[in-house]
Design goal:
By secondary structure, this protein is mainly α. It is built from 23 helices and 7 strands. The radius of gyration is 24 Å and the shape is globular. The termini are far apart. The structure holds flavin-adenine dinucleotide, ligand DLZ and iron/sulfur cluster (SF4).
């Protein structure tokens, strides 16, 4: 009996469940660079180069370990361009009688894969993805019967389950969450350490040429390319974060500085999401730094919460709610994505900087994604489909399981508050407090109305006015609606006029 073991591009881990019981040197391990995956959305050039290089390196590490690897390169003239086509070819070439694969992390791919057994006429075994800390069944059980899900309670369960930052039954330090300490604005002269960089090796050089030839019309810059593409280098990137950035991660988690795209974040999402790093090893590394006295509790707890809390929570919601979740549009947003999301040509400096950095790095940190780009998408009423497609293709860490809940749930409130209890709407004052973008902007952040006023200021109130019938009853929005109630008609008219003018110009 010959079993073909298929490994997808975001399953680059020797712990992957599809390799359990693999007859080393006998069972063919199939990996393939396919047109269908590279183009179902037009991924950022750097994202494709990163993933193809990481896949090629991973294949080599399997060969070095004695495995029989069948690796199909993009340029291979026989390449059929789809997973199913490549699996079919592998079956014929190896006389295979069974396919084993770990469950894919996108609903789109899973539903396709579930039809393969009929197409291929041999068993297709789909195994659970055990890289996550909470299985989909466990999450569903936790969610069952709750009218509203809240990340904080899920997170506490994960802390207890894995005994992370715990003293017996209690959280270390006496509090579960130190978020209130993690909102420092950037101070002048803040010294941000340079990020981990990795030089380009011949494999990466080859795939960069390939990407240039085949995906020249995709968004984004190929160079500079600094990502790790092997597990060993991804571990070095993690160590670099723990040593140089973690201690200030908490304090400046929400801060933004012009020309500092990396701030004190970890830049490990690309590695976690494709399998080069595993979540628990990142968490344990941060926990060790805390116990060694190298990083304070607010930083370590904040970092750990992102990984065992938010990351697992959004995955749970994705599988619980798909496929309906992708259709949600609670606020009936209809506006198309403005051209500046591609060109960066806008007078709004915060948006210009975030789009430019996204284009260069295939990365933007959380607060840029949430409170600048996402805040704009929410306030301008951009259609969830267009916003989701943009986020899915521009970031090197983007796969639908993590991108969709963050976009439809967290930024657009398209799920009506299932994931987050209120929309993350903010006026220019928030961006001005947390960044230095406003200092170099053509708009005035202190002006509330008129052509020179920061558009976030009137779009913010216009958003609450426009969505009054859907949002007014939300207890967490009592404050903005109380303020609106006190506004006179002239002020409301000015808000509506400015918003109308701005949004018409956008089109
Ligand atoms: P850090 O700030 O250092 O955080 C550490 C880790 O925590 C991250 O690497 C990530 O694995 C995890 N994490 C943090 N926040 C979240 C979150 N909200 N959801 C899931 N995991 C989280 N993250 C992705 O991995 N892929 C995406 O496609 C993605 N799309 C997003 C879209 C929007 C609109 C928003 C608001 C957030 C999105 N995020 C996404 C979450 C978050 O912004 C990124 O994980 C983070 O910016 C990655 O950079 P980092 O590794 O430096 O993270
Ligand atoms: C994102 C991506 C791209 C660009 N290309 C490939 C590919 O050629 N081959 C592959 O196996 N995986 C690729 N991926 C990752 C897949 O899209 C991902 O594995 C599925 O969406 C399931 O999460
Ligand atoms: Fe952004 Fe408004 Fe500040 Fe300009 S003034 S950078 S548009 S928040």
């Amino acid at each position: 009996m010959t079993t073909v073991r298929l490994i997808l591009g975001d399953q680059l881990s020797e712990q992957i469940s599809s390799l359990d019981g693999c007859a080393i040197g006998h069972d063919p391990i199939l990996m393939c660079e396919v047109r269908s995956e590279a183009t179902y959305v037009k991924h950022h050039k750097k994202k494709i180069a990163f993933l193809f290089s990481a896949m090629r390196h991973f294949a080599q590490s399997l060969r070095d370990a004695g495995h029989n690897v069948r690796y199909i390169e993009y340029d291979d003239p026989e390449n059929t361009g789809s997973f199913l086509g490549e699996v079919a070819r592998a079956i014929t070439a190896h006389g295979a009688t069974r396919i084993v694969v770990t469950s894919p992390n996108e609903h789109r791919v899973l539903t396709d894969l579930q039809t393969w057994q009929d197409h291929l006429g041999i068993p297709v075994v789909i195994r659970d993805d055990t890289r996550f800390l909470c299985s989909t069944e466990e999450f569903n059980t936790w969610a069952a019967g709750r009218k509203q899900l809240r990340m904080e309670y899920f997170y506490r369960e994960m802390r207890r389950k894995y005994n992370i930052l715990m003293t017996g039954q209690d959280p270390v330090g006496g509090q579960w969450n130190y978020d209130a300490e993690n909102r420092k604005p950037p101070k002048n002269g803040l010294n941000v350490p340079p990020p981990f960089t990795q030089s380009i090796d011949p494999t990466t050089r080859d795939v960069m040429g390939l990407v240039d030839r085949h995906f020249g019309d995709h968004f984004g810059d190929l160079e500079p390319f600094h990502f790790a593409v092997t597990r060993a280098d991804a571990l070095r990137a993690l160590d670099h974060f723990i040593e140089h950035r973690l201690s200030q991660f908490g304090d400046y988690q929400d801060a933004m500085i012009q020309g500092e795209p990396w701030m004190f974040h970890s830049h490990i999402s690309f590695y976690l999401n494709c399998g080069l790093l595993l979540p628990l090893e990142c968490v344990r590394a941060a926990e060790r730094a805390f116990h060694a006295g190298d990083a304070p509790l607010n930083a370590v707890e904040g970092f750990i919460r992102q990984i065992i809390g938010w990351r697992e929570y959004v995955r749970g919601i994705y599988w619980l709610k798909m496929p309906e979740y992708a259709q949600e549009n609670f606020l009936d947003a209809v506006r198309p994505l403005p051209a500046f999301f591609w060109t960066a040509q806008t007078k709004m400096n915060c948006l210009r900087q975030c789009v430019l950095e996204t284009k260069q790095n295939a990365y933007a940190h959380h607060i840029q994604r949430l409170m600048v780009l996402g805040n704009f998408a929410l306030l301008a009423g951009l259609h969830p489909d267009e916003v989701n497609e943009w986020y899915l293709l521009v970031y090197a860490d983007a796969y639908e399981w993590v991108e969709l809940p963050n976009v439809s749930g967290m930024i657009l409130f398209a799920d009506g508050g299932y994931l987050a209890s209120k929309p993350y709407a903010a006026s220019g004052a928030y961006i001005n407090k947390m960044s230095n973008y406003c200092k170099s902007c053509s708009y005035s952040v202190s002006k509330k109305n008129g052509p020179d006023a920061c558009p976030f200021n009137y779009l913010y109130w216009n958003f609450y006015l426009d969505n009054q019938s859907k949002l007014k009853g939300n207890p967490r929005l009592n404050h903005p609606y109380a303020t609106l109630a006190k506004m006179d008609d002239m002020k409301r008219d000015a808000i509506r006029d400015d918003a109308r003018r701005f949004l018409e110009d956008l089109a």
